[in-house]
Structure formats: C-alpha cells, structure tokens
Design goal:
- The protein is an alpha/beta fold and 101 residues long.
- The chain has one domain: Transcription Regulator spoIIAA.
- The chain contains 4 helices and 5 strands; from the N terminus they run E-E-H-E-H-E-H-H-E.
- It has a 5-stranded mixed beta sheet with strand order 1-2-3-4-5.
- Strand 2, helix 1 and strand 3 form a beta-alpha-beta unit.
- Helix 1 packs parallel to helix 2.
- The longest helix has 16 residues.
- It is globular and about 30 Å long.
- It starts with a strand and ends with a strand.
- The model has no long low-confidence stretch (mean pLDDT 96).
C-alpha cells in the first residue's frame, strides 16, 4: 500500500493505493493519525484502493471518531465496486460520508 498525503490549511487529503488489510492498516494509522491534530476535513481518496478488510474498516472508524471529536468531517471518495460493496454489507455506508467524484 502507498499513502500520499497533502495538508492545506485545516484540510488533510490522503490518497491510498493498493490494499488496506491486516498488514497495511497499521501503516495507514501511523501515517494519518499523527497529522489529525487541528484537522477539520479529512478526505480519503480510494480511487486506487483495490481491497479493504475488517482491519482497514477499524482504522477508518478510528479516524472518523477522531475527526468527530474536533467537529470535523471525514469523506471517502471514489471507492471501487468491491470496496463500496464492503461498505454496504458492513453498514459503513451509513456511518461514513462517501462520495463519487
């Protein structure tokens, strides 16, 4: 998995490429969590995310809770069909703000 981040003002955008699974979820957490202080908008670009496991979902839930504590907003953009289906089946589509751009 490859993560590219960009911070502008209070907005953090992370582009995630590859697979978000048991192996890579801790890497994503280590990359994003330290940058969340003062962030009001977190955008996770899943255009090139091929797969997400329950470990990946757990990390997303942690990010969502941290952003909510600072009255911010987290948005997942451009998940593919497989990732969207995982969100639907697990109920994450009701928890997360998901957009197709």
């Amino acid at each position: 998995m490859k993560v590219t981040t960009e911070i502008k003002d209070n907005d953090l955008t992370a582009v995630i490429d590859g697979r978000l699974d048991t192996t890579s979820a801790p890497q994503l957490d280590a990359e994003i969590s330290p940058k969340l202080d003062g962030i009001k908008s977190l955008t996770l670009d899943f255009t090139n995310l091929a797969y997400i496991s329950s470990a990946g979902l757990r990390v997303l839930l942690m990010f969502q809770k941290k952003i909510n504590q600072s009255d911010g907003k987290m948005t997942v953009v451009n998940p593919n069909e497989l990732v969207s289906e995982v969100f639907e089946v697990t109920g994450f589509s009701d928890i997360l703000n998901i957009e197709k751009r």
